[in-house]
Amino acid sequence: MYIRPAPNLRKRFGPDSWCLITGASDGIGKEFCHRFASFGFNIILVSRTLSKLQKVQDEIKEKYPNIKTKVIAQDLSDYSTKMTDRIEEEIKDARVDILINNVGACSRKLTLYIDTKLRDDKLMINVNMKQLIVMTKLFLKKMMKRKNGIVMNLCSGSGGVGCPYLATYSSTKGFCMLFSNNISYEYDEYGITIQGITPFYVSTKMSNMKPSFFVPTTKSFMDAAVKQFGSERNVWPNFSHKLIKFLSSLHLSYSMEKSYLTSQGLLKKAEERRTKRAKRMKQDHWRLERGLSDIFQFD
Predict the structure, then answer these.
(1) Coil/strand/helix, residue 172
(2) Cys-Cys link to 20, which of 38, 44, 75, 271 (CB 3.0-4.6 A)?
(3) What is the spatial distance between Cα 112 and Cα 98, in angstroms, rounded to a whole number?
(4) Arithmetic mean of pLDDT, 171-186
């Protein structure tokens, strides 16, 4: 699967086909936009910040001048009827053949579950689960009528092997994997492919990790992923991530333990950074007091 060519999705869907990508302004979502534009698909970019979307839109227009683009600045954590009505209105003239549910929310730091702020838990549930259901249902209805379409859901390896100190995030991504797998069987007969695309860490702003063998760049992740687009139900694109998955399948408790130790190491680094920051703040406060005492000297 790592040496086969990418499937010809443009041939499958024909001309004037659109691909809608959520979380399109950064990281993997941005890479999805550029890659599908290179395939010849028109692109609908969805994310919260209009200025970031327009920047990616300009990049696509410059590199692929024949590709049509639309931007929808929408906070998908607000999964109301108003949100879906607006998206339907924005795309009414576009035949969306490919939906990529890429947007995700993660904890800002590794922490004990009890110390996770409730608003962060709610955000992860809304973005990683509820909007995933809403967006998928919205586009599946139209794909069923055409008897053709692809839905790609960006999952996470943490949802398969567990991740202490990221309990809510890991659990919501586990839902994404199960949801994708379950409905993929339901819509085979309608000619619709539903995939769960499952990486572990990828070097993005969200992960804040440097590239390595186990942490691919967004480009190398996409290079591996495109070869499996529209094929298998569950995809672990990178060989290094496939290796982690294989090892975890041999002994789940071992993978949990490794995940735990990794989390502990990251927690230790985070605690060291907090300690250094507190020390600097204390030193700065001392310097300020010393400076004030030098200024306001009385005889």
Answers:
(1) helix
(2) 44
(3) 38
(4) 94
Helix (H) or strand (E) holding 99: strand 96-101
> Which has the closest alpha carbon to 101: 167, 188, 24?
24
**So what's the pLDDT on residue 298?**
43
For the chain, the structural domain boundaries read: 9-250, 251-293
Q: What are 6's two structure tokens? A: 């990418």
- 129 CB-near residues (< 8 Å, 6+ apart): 172, 175, 176
CB-based burial label for 287 (10 Å; 0-12, 13-18, 19+): exposed
Residue 235: in which H helix or E strand, if any?
strand 234-235
For residue 237, name the pLDDT band (cuts at 50, 70, 90).
confident
Q: With bands split at pLDDT 50, 70 and 90, how would you rate the model's confidence at 220?
A: confident
CATH superfamily of 9-250: NAD(P)-binding Rossmann-like Domain (3.40.50.720)
Cα separation, 266 vs 256, in Å, equals 15
Other beta carbons within 10 Å of 172: 26
pLDDT at 296 over 80: no
pLDDT top residue among 109 and 45:
45
DSSP letter (8 states) at residue 24: T
Per-residue model confidence (pLDDT) at position 257: 52
Q: What residues pair up with 195 in beta bridges, in sequence order?
A: 152
Q: How far apart are CA 166 and CA 112, in angstroms?
A: 8
Question: CB of 54 within 8 A of CB of 62?
Answer: no
Q: Which residues are catalytic?
A: 169
Mean pLDDT of 202-212: 72
SS3 assignment, position 96: strand
E strand or H helix at 42: strand 42-47
Chain segment 88-106, per-residue pLDDT in tens: 999 999 999 999 999 988 8
